[in-house]
Input
Amino acid sequence: MKAENNCLRKDRQIRFVLENGFLFRGKHLILRALPAHKINPPKEGKGPFLAVVISRKKEKKAVLRNWMKRRLREIFRLQHTEIPQGHAYVAVARGVDKKATYSDLEQDFMNLIAKSKETK
Output
């Protein structure tokens, strides 16, 4: 599967998940999860879908915001077999911690995914 097929790109879809999705809090991230068929407008396909949001208020430098987004998308790409099919996720960064390692972010993200599996 291509990564582009597994991304939420439309602003309306991202806002819908943010407003209606289940909330899970981690050390570095806040994750909103919602079954993909409930998204308005519906997302085509059955794979897990992801959008990453990092506010300019949390990190002024675009370089660091993009660095964190790239890391989270790579974690999602490598771990997509562990993530439930048919769900949409929006990962909101609590801030960009320059000292956070890749494994810290991966562990935090996967813990939030595991929490979301328990509630469904």
Observations:
- The chain has a mean pLDDT of 87.
- The chain has one domain: 3-119.
- The longest strand covers residues 29-35.
- Strands lie at 22-25, 29-35, 49-53, 87-93.
